[in-house]
Fold this sequence. Notes:
- By secondary structure, this protein is an alpha/beta fold.
- It is built from ten helices and seven strands.
- It has helices at 7-15, 18-26, 46-65, 95-103, 121-126, 174-192, 218-229, 245-260, 296-311, 331-345, and strands at residues 69-74, 110-114, 133-140, 163-168, 196-200, 235-238, 358-362.
- Helix 3 (46-65) runs parallel beside helix 4 (95-103) and helix 7 (218-229) runs parallel beside helix 8 (245-260).
- It is globular.
- The model is unreliable at 348-353 (pLDDT under 50).
Amino acid sequence: MAQFHTKEYINYIKNISPQASNEFSVDPSEINFNIGGNDCPAFQGLYNFAQISCGASIDAAIRLNYGYSDICVNWGGGLHHAKKTEASGFCYVNDIVLGILELLKHNNRVLYIDIDVHHGDGVEEAFYSTDRVFTASFHKFGDFFPGTGCIKDIGKKQGKYYTLNVPLNSGIQNVDYFNLFQTVMGAVIEKYIPNAIVIQCGADSLAWDRLGPLNLTLEGHGQCVSFIQSFGIPLLVLGGGGYTIKNVSRCWTYETSLLLKKEIPNEIPANDYYEYYGPSYLLHIDPKNEDNKNTREYLDLIQKRCLEHVKFLDSAPSVPFHTPPPDLRTTEDVNARLKSKAQKEDEFYDQSNQPNKQIFAVCLCKC
């Protein structure tokens, strides 16, 4: 975790107690690293949670780097608000940045896409001055947390034009959202030619979210994931926000099925949490009956500006010769760990005792 965050910050997360957090909430002036109070409360097991979330994203990046998987998923990741020395928006350690840093050891260019309702500010900030990571965020903009993500924010120095912000108004629905997403991201991928893609799939951009004012259904949200998958580029899929919990589980179940290209029924099968999915007990949700505040003129203007932005990109920017940082694990370590894990999960092996390439892997590993 200290590959991005400071050691002082990580040590603080490791040692803070919920009791101390309660004391901070009484006296906000004593809050350190923005942990404590309502925005980022301390809780029992915080450090362990951070280890698991980050470890899974790093583990996923390693699998992609070594070609063991084409797609890796960490629904427990996607904590895009965390900064180098500060927690923010319920995000304590930025697993996305750590995963991308690992991908950059083997890939010249990484594309990061964020379809959470909130701007992916922590990831954008981390890579704002480099052309090796292109960050694109589709989000509600205006009087809305975190208050960043203006279309005029385009990166700086070497990273100028390698940051793209797509600000949206409340109420956008599937067709308008996907048409904009498909047009803009298709142009970005064609010009930037990424070696790997990371997509953050925050489910708070769905209709009926307790915090998010957008109006997507599972189909519209999932269309974006399937579109990115269709390019056949190594893909890391992450979770993110979502505050109507039953719809978060609906969304990520559906998108897992899309990534696997497996159809699943709309009727939710009986399970221990079946009652949570009433009254419909169905997988898919309907949009809200509310106005879309994104006019055709506004969406056309945003699309035009985004496409003009892409024109300024260098096609497939090269990387000067350099010695990459060492991998967190050696090839032998990766092979041994994958072999051990596969034996436990009854995966298939070839005659050389190397695990066969998995098209899809769900990663869960403590860092």
